[in-house]
């Protein structure tokens, strides 16, 4: 890897961990973000000349920590805010061993999910601060203009500092309520970035933290089962390969085994939830012998537990397998799926199977126009 | 951090509450204030007279004006202020939850921005 690629990789791998650590003392996320941005800039300047350091995360933390300290000492800052050096200085950073940087991302995620923060911003905030998605990417995922999302994120980060929301794992009584928002965010990361190593890692961290929570286990299984098929999803020619045509030999057996272990524990609790059902669907796909009737039952359960547009489209697709394309199309028409890419892609496939070629072509055009992923777009253009 | 716990609720009219209800509320506030004091977080506790006794002062248009009545007429009125010093918002929320007035109104938690202490402005 060349030094600049190394900087990008270090930023991706370390961003959430370093930000959580830098912001923990003062609760000041914007200041931590500025310090971290300075560290990336210093890396871009010095790594090509002096070589890439052995511990990239430790290097970035040291630079960012010094920047934060400079900021605290700066005369300008002292003039605007009366400073209690004893209480406000980020002294806790001195105790951090840069060679073994602790993972405080979960604390930062729980800060983002605090009940004093507008719940509509819980997931966007986590995706932005912990996972490093830009305001533009987050805005796109939530169908909000980039500038609007950026403004909301800036405002809420300021609010975290001024209201004094603490950076710590809350008590047992408060954890379950916030865990739901954390699970949603990890799921959001997984949806935004299908093979996301971040989503994988965070789901594992959550499972370690709350091993008895069946939905945490369900989410870990779901993310692992999806990641297990990431390589098989792209063919040797770089093209998207749909599930039915994938080569099971290219699926990651270790990940699948670990996912099954999570699911066994989850089912043992006897409390069914949305992520467990979604994971069960994925597990069925990974078994290589997905029975359409079983799939339909699972999607029906999912639709009852947590109705969503995506789940409704998936249910319509399996109804087409068990009861024929006309029944599938009827189920699809019952949904309000206008402008939802998977709805258009599924409708296109079903219309084609019913021999309604002109309508199918028009639907393929809509689906292609709404597709973000290059390989998937290629696939739809070929089907069209 | 210093937080003001602002109690807002409907103002009972004269004679609307029985003596027993009032006595019960007074007992609850006594227990609450003593708990805050015992925890070492209480800076001050003030229960306010009803809004009918408010006087509002402004100099917004240049001339000083003194006016009878509250700044804004609302259904719920500011009824009292507890000023506390606790480590973070979660601790403030915890104390606000235990405030007796939370049963019949709402408690607004407002962080203090700056305070005049020992002859100077501090954080």
From TrEMBL, chain A:
SUPFAM superfamilies noted in UniProt: Sigma2 domain of RNA polymerase sigma factors
Pfam family, one: DUF6596
Domain RNA polymerase sigma-70 region: 14-75
Coiled coil: none
Name this protein carries in UniProt: RNA polymerase sigma factor
Organism: Actinoplanes sichuanensis
InterPro entries cross-referenced by the UniProt entry: DUF6596 (IPR046531), RNA_pol_sigma70_r2 (IPR007627), RNA_pol_sigma_r2 (IPR013325)
Ranges where the DUF6596 domain occurs: 196-266
TrEMBL record, chain B:
Signal peptide positions on this chain: none
Domain (YCII-related): residue spans on this chain: 1-113
Family indicated by similarity: Belongs to the YciI family.
Protein name: YciI family protein
Species annotation: Actinoplanes sichuanensis
């Amino acid at each position: 890897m060349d030094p600049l690629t190394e900087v990008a990789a270090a930023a991706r791998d370390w961003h959430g961990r370093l930000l959580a650590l830098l912001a923990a003392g003062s609760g000041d996320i914007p200041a931590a973000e500025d310090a971290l941005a300075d560290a990336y800039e210093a890396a871009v300047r010095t790594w090509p000349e002096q070589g890439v350091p052995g511990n990239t995360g430790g290097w970035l933390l040291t630079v960012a920590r010094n920047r934060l300290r400079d900021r605290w000492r700066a005369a300008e800052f002292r003039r605007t805010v009366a400073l209690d050096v004893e209480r406000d200085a980020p002294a806790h950073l001195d105790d951090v061993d840069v060679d073994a940087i602790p993972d405080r991302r979960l604390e930062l995620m729980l800060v983002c999910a605090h009940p004093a923060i507008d719940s509509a911003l819980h997931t966007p905030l986590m995706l932005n601060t912990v996972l490093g998605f830009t305001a533009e990417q987050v805005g796109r995922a939530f169908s909000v203009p980039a500038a609007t999302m950026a403004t909301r994120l800036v405002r809420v980060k300021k609010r975290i500092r001024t209201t004094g929301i603490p950076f710590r794992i809350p008590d047992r009584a408060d954890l379950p309520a916030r865990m739901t928002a954390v699970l949603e965010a990890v799921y959001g990361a997984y949806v935004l970035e299908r093979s996301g190593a971040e989503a994988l890692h965070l789901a594992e961290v959550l499972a370690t933290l709350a091993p008895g929570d069946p939905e945490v286990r369900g989410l870990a299984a779901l993310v692992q089962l999806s990641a297990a098929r990431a390589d098989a999803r792209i063919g040797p020619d770089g093209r998207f390969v749909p599930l039915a045509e994938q080569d099971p030999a290219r699926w990651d057996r270790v990940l699948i085994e670990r996912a099954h272990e999570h699911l066994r524990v989850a089912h043992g609790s006897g409390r069914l939830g949305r992520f467990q059902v979604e994971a069960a669907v994925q597990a069925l796909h990974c078994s290589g012998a997905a029975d359409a009737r079983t799939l339909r039952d699972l999607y029906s359960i999912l639709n009852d537990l947590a109705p969503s547009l995506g789940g409704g489209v998936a249910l319509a697709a399996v109804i087409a397998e068990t009861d024929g394309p006309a029944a599938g199309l009827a189920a699809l028409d019952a949904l309000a799926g206008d402008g939802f890419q998977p709805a258009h892609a599924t409708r296109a496939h079903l219309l084609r199977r019913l021999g309604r070629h002109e309508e199918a072509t028009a639907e393929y055009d809509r689906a292609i126009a709404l597709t973000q992923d290059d390989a998937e777009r290629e696939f739809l253009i070929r089907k069209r | 951090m210093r937080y003001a716990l602002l109690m807002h609720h409907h103002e009972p009219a004269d004679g609307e509450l029985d003596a027993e209800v009032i006595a019960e509320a007074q007992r609850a506030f006594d227990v609450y204030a003593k708990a805050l004091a015992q925890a070492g977080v209480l800076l001050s506790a003030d229960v306010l007279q009803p809004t009918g006794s408010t006087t509002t002062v402004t100099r917004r248009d240049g001339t000083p004006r003194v006016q009878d009545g509250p700044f804004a007429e609302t259904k719920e009125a500011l009824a009292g202020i507890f000023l506390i010093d606790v480590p973070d918002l979660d601790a403030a929320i915890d104390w606000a939850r235990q405030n007796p007035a939370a049963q019949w109104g709402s408690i607004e938690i407002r962080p203090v921005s700056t305070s005049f202490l020992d002859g100077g402005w501090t954080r």
